[in-house]
Amino acid sequence: xxxxxxxxxxxxxxxxxxxxxxxxxxxxxxxxxxxxxxxxxxxxxxxxxxxxxxxxxxxxxxxxxxxxxxxxxxxxxxxxxxxxxxxxxxxxxxxxxxxxxxxxxxxxxxxxxxxxxxxxxxxxxxxxxxxxxxxxxxxxxxxxxxxxxxxxxxxxxxxxxxxxxxxxxxxxxxxxxxxxxxxxxxxxxxxxxxxxxxxxxxxxxxxxxxxxxxxxxxxxxxxxxxxxxxxxxxxxxxxxxxxxxxxxxxxxxxxxxxxxxxxxxxxxxxxxxxx
Length: 275
Known about the structure:
Layout: E1 10-12, H1 15-24, E2 32-34, E3 56-61, H2 70-83, E4 87-92, H3 110-113, H4 123-130, H5 133-136, E5 139-142, H6 147-156, E6 159-162, H7 171-178, E7 183-186, H8 191-194, E8 201-204, H9 209-221, H10 223-240, H11 243-259, H12 265-271
Parallel strand pairs: 1-2, 3-4, 3-6, 4-5, 6-7, 7-8
Helix pairs in contact: 2-9, 7-10
């Protein structure tokens, strides 16, 4: 409150975040606006990308941390591999757990607080120990790489899977959409704004390995659905999250507060293109 009352503009990276600020500090709601994170949408898939083959390649990109739900992803794979042994999963990212006191300890969400069970040791090693031999031989962990190298992994992927427990926005699923890769993700936080269920990807409930496995299996069995979700995802990423779109929103917001005070929430909503 002490800091917010001195701000001319309060920006959230998703409506999920911005609306929480409005709810918690209604006296400052008129100065809140959402400007989404941006991604590089000028991505061209290679001719071989997305082609139907004998192996279906799954990809996850991001920090290896408990809130990313990788334990649920591996549990889902234990179910998927029984009927679809032709899968491979790449988990791309460094082990970098969010500090316990920054998220788990202060959360009022019981599901988030339950992540405490994954602290006290290496989360990456816990994941390795969790896997059966059948899953372990199909999973590859890759440490952090450059952005240009990451684009190669998107290009090689058939399905992008992101089973986070909580998210403010989540950039990797949008990068996957920009690359034309269909997304399976959890229905949490800002991902409910970026991913359109049954149009650019599939949304499932968090911590539900069975439903996650079913969604993955559905895309494995339906190459046509993978293509359509990927194509629609690329269109949505270009329309909503391209850097020109984001820069225009930032410039408009800054010009507006310099030129005249913002007096109503309706003005901010119009400014953010959310009419």
